[in-house]
């Protein structure tokens, strides 16, 4: 592969990303940085097709990139542009406009902003639960023998569960439970909330065991929910307007968004581009996903990604993802440092 063919491949990808139309040799030959005739371009495009980097849709004389063509372009040929100060300010404003007061909301608002910017679907996995500390457990009476348990963690997660008990609880019993939880669970890592630990808590309730054990059982179920990785998808509807993707694939993806969790988990540090042809975990055919991991302190905490058709503007979208990843890392790491009682 000589430099000229690589330059022509890059030009075909850039042109196709812009127009969505198969690209002809005359279009490429007319570009100022391609100093060869249309005939030479045509020959080179034929070679690129033989190498499996371009293909010719049967209805047209022009060519489009294959996923191998995109892969080579992204790995070797693409140049991304640094964001201007004005663009960075715009991205900051988008994050702030969501009113993200907690870590959870901050991460979701980054996804919302990315979906809006790219007109694709944005996916975000939550911070790993091992970094979450239980800050409060509350019980709220809501009706006859009906109580809601609230579990609040240091990263801003609030989980609740309704529990129906055999008896109404007295104020004394409620106070005992709240105090007991303060003593035994506040400041404990969510990751350490094992079934055994909660069984030990039930056993130590003594005279209150019969009446209060359903609340502890409810807490165990809440902690199990918290430990499961959650994926938030923003802008999935953007994919439905894309003619290059199958509608049924998108509907299936919207119903089973957790299928992308392994792809997000397996991503390395830095920005990666993954193609549907390279993995069985992709629900949407002919699509790609740009993924980046954000950190909390020095630990990986979650991932941020954009899913779209293969024909998306990688050179433009990658700097957005890099910026949001860095911004999230900075914001949630700063927040962690300023949290009282955190070591």
TrEMBL record:
Keywords: Repressor, Stress response, Transcription, Transcription regulation. Residues 106-318 form the Heat-inducible transcription repressor HrcA C-terminal domain. InterPro entries: GAF-like_dom_sf, HrcA, HrcA_C, WH-like_DNA-bd_sf, WH_DNA-bd_sf, WHTH_HrcA_DNA-bd, WHTH_transcript_rep_HrcA_IDD. The keyword Repressor applies. One of its GO terms (biological process) is negative regulation of DNA-templated transcription. Residues 7-71 form the Winged helix-turn-helix transcription repressor HrcA DNA-binding domain. Gene3D superfamilies: 3.30.450.40, Heat-inducible transcription repressor hrca homolog, domain 3, Winged helix-like DNA-binding domain superfamily/Winged helix DNA-binding domain. Transmembrane segments: none annotated. It holds the Pfam family HrcA. NCBIfam families: hrcA. This is Heat-inducible transcription repressor HrcA. It comes from Ruminococcus champanellensis (strain DSM 18848 / JCM 17042 / KCTC 15320 / 18P13). The gene is hrcA.
